């Protein structure tokens, strides 16, 4: 009897010990597996967890967004789970579902496809999780918040800069991805400025195409086609971002036109800024990503705590007027890159000028 009791006590003690050890391991697991799916529901500790579902990490700007957003959320005492779908719609939805199932407190989404990601908002809401659209708008969904730049203004800044150089002439527009709402806003902004000049007969847009999935090789094809279709008689190029501008410039240089025609881009990527110094790209649009990341982080954490996010603007996404925060973009050319990009530490003086000399 007493031996039986001793065995029982020992078994009970061992079970208790196992439960204790398992409980102690959980927080460590969460730390070790940061940015990979959680083994346990995030609500098991009190730390706020923000899910960050990204379209891609295959472009310079999005790596910066990820790093800045993660750092900003962590400074606020919360944690981020990042998943990137690298341009695959189905993958982005599955990854978002994973984050939802892990029990993140708020989901922040950079949509690859403005329409397809509406499903993510729906699924998140079924679990009581609010969704913030980051940089790109999710359309036709009951989105909780949109944090971005004034993207129509991005296009306006590009067209204002290029019309200074070419007030009359034949323009090529290399657009972004048709599936990205921003691409439509950038293009709209460009036409806000060009339209009166088109109406006067000063400017003709001789080529205007989307760049499927924002892929540089598609932009290169577009630029090649625009040159051939117009017998190389074009006067200016506006490209929706720096990666597409780079492809356009490669195609122009193959025709001996690089550095002769003005070219606009966007994102202030290092290579683009170096091209501005060199003179093959005329301007870029600088969007202080640190402000975007910090604003989105601050509002995501507030939202997770159930606090008011205080958005003062509204953007129609086809379904509702989405509470929005829109930051200001800045046009950058040779004359002001020191006082903008370099002053802000977005790129270092050495990278911009000496990286350039090394080429
Ligand atoms: C962003 C740009 C970016 C592009 C391609 C757009 O939605 O606003 O900054 O270059 O996507 O990733």
Structure description:
It contains twelve helices and 13 strands. It has 359 residues and is an alpha/beta fold. The chain has a seven-stranded mixed beta sheet with strand order 2-1-3-4-5-12-11, with helices on both faces. α3 runs parallel beside α4 and α9 crosses α12. The longest helix is centred in the first third of the chain and has 31 residues. The protein starts with a helix and ends with a helix. The N terminus is likely disordered. Bound molecules: beta-D-glucopyranose. The site of beta-D-glucopyranose has 10 residues, from loops.
List the topology elements.
Blueprint lengths: L1 H31 L16 E6 L5 H16 L3 E6 L4 H13 L4 E4 L8 H9 L3 E5 L10 E5 L1 H15 L3 E6 L6 H20 L2 E7 L6 H14 L6 E4 L2 H13 L8 E2 L5 H9 L5 E3 L2 H16 L8 E4 L4 E7 L2 E3 L5 H5 L6 H10 L1
Parallel strand pairs: 1-2, 1-3, 3-4, 4-5, 5-12, 6-7, 6-8, 8-9
Antiparallel strand pairs: 10-13, 11-12
Helix pairs in contact: 2-10, 3-4, 5-6, 7-8, 9-12
The structure holds beta-D-glucopyranose.
Features:
359 residues, alpha/beta, Rossmann fold, 2 domains, 4-stranded parallel β-sheet, 12 helices, globular, binds beta-D-glucopyranose
Order of helices and strands: HEHEHEHEEHEHEHEHEHEHEEEHH
How much β-strand is present in the residues?
15-25%
Bound molecules: beta-D-glucopyranose
Distance between the termini: 86 Å
CATH secondary-structure class of the largest domain: Alpha Beta
Number of strands: 13
Question: Do you know the CATH topology of the largest domain?
Answer: Rossmann fold
What is the second-level CATH architecture of the largest domain? 3-Layer(aba) Sandwich
- Rounded to the nearest angstrom, the radius of gyration is 25 Å
Low-confidence stretches: 1-44
What's the average pLDDT? 89
Shape: globular
